[in-house]
Specification:
The chain is mainly α and 591 residues long. Helix content is 38%, strand content 7%. The radius of gyration is 25 Å and the shape is globular.
C-alpha cells in the first residue's frame, strides 16, 4: 500500500494543476517527511522527472520545423507580419511547473536516509533538469527570473521580482550542468547518466558560446555584454565536455560498412542504438506505447503541415567522392533522378528518393514515390519512418527517437574548435571525416570555401572550416533535437535566413508532363488551370487553385510569408505576465 501511495503521489505531483507554479497546494499532495525517506523514493521521484521532462517524438522532430530548409503549409506566428506582443503566450503556470518540481526535490532530498554520495547523485539529476529548463527559457526570452528554490506563496518580493540578467542565468546553468556531470553516477537503475549530462553540456555551451560571439549585444536589453570573455569560456567548456565523451570509449558512430542503410538504422530501432544514441525518447509496441511520426510524414491528411525539404538544401549534399554537387555546370536544371545519383547516402535515408520501397499489408515490397499531396517540393521526409503501410495510421510507430547522439558531439567539437581558431586536419579527421565516411562520402578536408555555401549564408561566413561544419551539421542533424536548426540560426545571428526562397525539384516547363522518378511514365504536370479532361496517371498542380506556389526558372517556389526583424532573436514577454508582474521588463524592440 505504501508503494501505491508513493506512485500516486508522483502522479499527483506531475499532473495536478495549481493556481501558481509556486503554489504550496502542490506540496500538500506529498508528505515530504514520509516520501523522501530513503533512496528508493528519491529514485522514484527522479524517474518521475525523467518521464515528465523528456520531450516526446513529435516535440523532437516536427516540433522544431521552423527553419530555412523546410517549406510547410503553416507558419510560426512569431514570424508573421501581423504578429503583436498581445499574441504571445508561454509564461503560464504550466510553463514554470517543472522548475517547481525540481526545486522541491532539491529542498527535500536531504531527508532521505542514504549516503552523501547517493544524495549528490540525485542532486546532480535535479540540477541537470534545472539546467535544461533554464536553457530552454533563455533561448526563448533571454533574461528570465532565476529561482534556485521554491517560493512561499506569501513571498511577493520573490514571486514578482525583476528578470535576472541572461549572463547570470547562463552562468548558473553552467554551474548546474557541471555539478550534474561531476556527481551523477553511472548506475543501471538511473534514467539520467553522466554521458547525458556531458552531452547536454556540450550542446548548451556551444549554443551560448557562439551566441555571445555573433551577437554583439544582449538582445533582451540592446546593451553590450558585461563579460567580453564569456564566448571563449563557453566554447572551451563545450570542447571539454565533448572530448570527455569522445575519450571515454563508450560511444561511437553506428557503422557496419553499409553506407546506404547505417545512418537511418539509428532512427528505426525500438531500442536505442547504444553505440551512438546517448539519450532517446523510447516507445514500445509490447507496452502499447506509440508515436505518430510515420503517419505524420506520409499521410495526405496532414496537409496542414506538409514538411517539405527545399532544393536549395538538397543542393548542399555532396557527391559520394566528396566533390560539390553545385560545382557541376547545369546543376540547377538536374532532374529529381539526377539529384539522387551518386550523392551522400544520407540524402536517400532522409528523403524519399528513387528506389525507395516499403512493405504493404501483405508483407510485399513495393516501390514508392513522393506524394505531392504530402510534399510541396517533391522531397518527402522519411528519416523516422517505419517502412510499411501498417505504420501509416495514427500512433502505430514505436521506434525510439534520439534526443542527442554521438554524431552531434562530434559536430559540436568541430564547431567549437573552429570558432576558437583551433581547427586542424587532425580535428577534422576525428570528427567530420567520420560522419562523411559513414555516409559513403569522401572525407578529405576542404581546401577552399564553397561559393554556393558562402552565398547560401548571405556572404556572412567565408571560413572554409565553418562552412563545411555548417553543411555537415544541417545534413547530419536534419529534423533533430526539437529545433536544432532554428537554434543554430539564432545563435549564428542569421535569422534572416528564415525568409529564404523555398524551391522544388526542377520541373522545366508548365503544361508539359514529366517523368519525375525515371520509370518511363510521365507522372507530374504543372498547369495554369486544370483541363476539363485529365490523365489519371498524372498528378496535377493547378497554379490557379493554390496560394502556395509560383512558377519561375523551371521550378515551383513555395510562398514564404515569414518576416524577419532582429527583435525576434528573443520572444516578447507576454502581456498577461507583465500585467501580473509589472517588474518584468519587456525585451528590447518589443516595448
Amino acid at each position: 500500500m505504501k508503494k501505491i501511495y508513493i506512485c500516486l503521489a508522483i502522479v499527483a505531483l506531475a499532473f495536478t494543476s495549481c493556481n501558481d507554479y509556486l503554489d504550496k497546494k502542490l506540496i500538500s499532495k506529498i508528505n515530504s517527511k514520509e516520501f523522501f525517506a530513503n533512496e528508493e523514493q528519491l529514485q522514484l521521484y527522479a524517474n518521475g522527472l525523467y518521464l515528465n521532462m523528456t520531450p516526446n517524438a513529435e516535440e523532437l522532430t516536427t516540433g522544431g520545423s521552423t527553419c530555412d530548409y523546410l517549406a510547410r503549409n503553416t507558419t510560426n506566428a512569431l514570424l508573421e507580419r501581423t504578429f503583436t506582443v498581445n499574441q504571445m503566450s508561454g509564461w503560464t503556470i504550466g510553463a514554470w511547473r517543472d522548475l517547481f518540481r525540481v526545486n522541491y526535490f532539491l529542498e527535500n532530498m536531504d531527508k532521505a536516509a542514504c549516503t552523501p554520495e547517493v544524495k549528490n547523485h540525485y542532486r546532480g539529476i535535479a540540477r541537470f533538469w534545472r539546467a535544461l529548463f533554464y536553457f530552454d527559457k533563455v533561448k526563448s526570452y533571454g533574461d528570465v527570473p532565476w529561482y534556485s528554490h521554491t517560493i512561499e506563496a506569501a513571498d511577493t518580493t520573490a514571486l514578482y521580482k525583476e528578470r535576472d540578467d541572461r549572463e547570470m542565468v547562463m552562468d548558473s546553468v553552467l554551474q548546474d550542468i557541471n555539478y550534474a556531470c561531476d556527481h551523477i553516477m553511472n548506475r543501471a537503475e538511473t534514467t539520467v547518466t553522466p554521458s547525458m549530462a556531458l552531452a547536454m553540456k556540450s550542446r548548451i555551451c556551444l549554443f551560448e558560446g557562439t551566441y555571445r560571439k555573433y551577437h554583439a549585444v544582449n538582445p533582451s536589453t540592446g546593451e553590450a555584454w558585461k563579460d567580453a570573455t564569456a564566448s571563449q569560456r563557453f566554447l572551451q567548456e563545450c570542447v571539454a565536455a565533448s572530448e570527455k565523451i569522445m575519450n571515454s570509449g563508450i560511444f561511437k558512430l553506428y557503422n557496419t560498412g553499409k553506407p546506404e542503410t547505417d545512418y537511418r538504422y539509428v532512427f528505426q530501432q525500438e531500442k536505442p542504438v547504444k553505440d551512438e544514441v546517448i539519450w532517446a525518447k523510447e516507445y514500445s509496441a509490447e507496452l502499447s506505447s506509440y508515436h505518430n511520426l510515420t503517419q505524420l510524414f506520409v499521410s495526405s491528411g496532414n496537409q496542414s503541415n506538409r514538411w517539405s525539404p527545399t532544393q536549395e538544401f538538397v543542393n548542399t549534399y555532396l557527391n559520394r567522392d566528396g566533390s560539390r554537387f553545385t560545382d557541376a555546370a547545369g546543376y540547377e536544371t538536374k532532374s529529381f533522378v539526377q539529384n539522387s545519383t551518386n550523392r551522400d547516402c544520407r540524402l536517400a535515408q532522409s528523403m524519399m528518393m528513387p528506389g525507395y520501397s516499403k512493405l504493404n499489408n501483405n508483407g510485399e515490397k513495393m516501390e514508392t514515390t513522393p506524394d505531392w499531396s504530402v510534399t510541396m517540393t517533391g522531397y518527402q521526409v522519411i528519416k523516422y519512418n517505419m517502412d510499411g503501410t501498417f505504420y501509416e495510421v495514427t500512433n502505430h510507430s514505436s521506434n525510439a527517437v534520439p534526443v542527442i547522439r554521438y554524431a552531434e558531439i562530434l559536430l559540436n567539437e568541430a564547431e567549437a574548435k573552429a570558432e576558437l581558431g583551433q581547427m586542424t586536419n587532425q580535428v577534422w579527421n576525428k570528427t567530420i571525416r567520420l560522419l562523411r565516411e559513414r555516409a559513403g562520402v569522401g572525407g578529405s578536408a576542404p581546401t577552399s570555401a564553397d561559393p554556393y555555401l558562402v552565398s547560401y549564408y548571405d556572404n556572412k561566413v567565408t571560413d572554409m572550416w565553418l562552412l563545411e561544419i555548417r553543411r555537415e551539421r544541417a545534413i547530419e542533424l536534419f529534423f533533430e533535437g526539437g529545433g536544432l536548426r532554428y537554434d543554430d540560426l539564432m545563435r549564428w545571428k542569421q535569422g534572416e535566413m528564415l525568409i529564404k526562397s523555398l524551391g522544388s525539384i526542377y520541373i522545366g516547363a508548365k503544361n508539359t508532363a514529366i517523368d519525375t522518378d525515371g520509370d518511363g511514365t510521365n507522372d507530374l504536370i504543372v498547369v495554369d488551370k486544370l483541363p476539363a479532361s485529365r490523365n489519371p496517371a498524372l498528378t496535377y498542380i493547378d497554379l490557379s487553385k493554390t496560394r502556395f506556389y509560383t512558377f519561375r526558372d523551371g521550378r515551383l517556389y513555395i510562398a514564404n510569408n515569414n518576416v524577419w526583424e532582429d527583435k525576434k532573436y528573443t520572444h516578447p514577454i507576454p502581456t498577461a505576465a507583465r500585467v501580473k508582474n509589472p517588474k518584468l521588463a519587456q525585451n528590447y524592440g518589443w516595448e
